[in-house]
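To the wet lab folks,

You asked to see what we're planning to order before we commit. Fair enough. Below is the target structure as tokens, and below that is the sequence we designed to fit it. If anything looks off to you, flag it before the synthesis order goes out.
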């Protein structure tokens, strides 16, 4: 579905992404793990057209999307839920959800997908007229995902969906990611919580200082000694957060 080859991204005189290649097969969950500053978010921003690469190729379903406008890329079926949620705090939950479908003209389909996201996130239906900025952190993350799903993506890219959340909410978020994937949506997932990400991933990549240093199935990376030492130690997955 998505194929990235020899991607290079510079910020000023700094190479943020250094000649990386990876692929995301259709209907799979692919995890991209690594420490802060490894280049994970820049990679997603390059795919969605928010950051301009220096060189390389980005193909989606055999078609080059390299350098295309972000809105056009979204219309082709790729959506990004950014780090930090970026919900519209001064709009209601329902208004945020409807914004996700702004490119769509199929009214019946939009209504059907709104019903689906409410089934995934029942709390959002109960709070549909509440101002989004008054939701808890976990609820805001659910809203960010629901809004993204309203564009009916074929590929959903998620940037740190568990960041700053309490463990019980993290478990719920990962269960929902699996459910979304079961409904035919391909997932490219960025996570510092490597343990949780690799447990649900069909395939994974490890990024370090702008380079991909390891690749394999989720299970293979979970059992890789280097990955264990660097990302799955005693402190891994135990980050505390707020709801």
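Sequence we intend to order:
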């Amino acid at each position: 579905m998505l194929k990235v080859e020899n991607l290079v991204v510079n910020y000023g005189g700094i190479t943020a992404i250094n000649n990386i290649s990876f692929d995301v097969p259709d209907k799979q969950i692919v995890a991209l793990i690594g420490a802060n500053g490894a280049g994970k978010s820049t990679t997603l921003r390059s795919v969605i057209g928010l950051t301009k690469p220096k060189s390389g190729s980005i193909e989606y379903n055999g078609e080059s999307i390299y350098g295309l406008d972000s809105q056009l890329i979204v219309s082709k079926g790729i959506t990004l839920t950014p780090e930090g949620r970026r919900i519209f705090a001064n709009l209601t939950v329902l208004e945020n959800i409807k914004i996700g479908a702004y490119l769509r003209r199929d009214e019946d389909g939009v209504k059907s997908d709104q019903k689906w996201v409410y089934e995934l996130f029942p709390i959002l239906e109960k709070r549909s007229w509440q101002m989004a900025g008054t939701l808890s952190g976990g609820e805001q993350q659910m809203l960010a995902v629901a809004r993204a799903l309203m564009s009916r993506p074929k590929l959903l890219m998620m940037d740190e969906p568990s960041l700053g959340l309490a463990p019980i909410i993290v478990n719920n978020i990962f269960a929902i990611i699996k459910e979304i994937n079961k409904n035919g949506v391909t997932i490219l997932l960025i996570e510092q919580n490597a343990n949780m990400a690799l447990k649900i991933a069909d395939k994974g990549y490890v990024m370090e200082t702008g380079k991909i240093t390891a690749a394999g199935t989720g299970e293979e990376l979970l059992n890789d000694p280097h990955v264990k030492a660097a990302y799955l130690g005693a402190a891994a997955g135990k980050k505390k957060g707020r709801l």
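Structural context that might help your review: Residues 167-182 form the longest helix (16 residues). Confidence is low (pLDDT under 50) at residues 234-243.

Thanks,
Computational group
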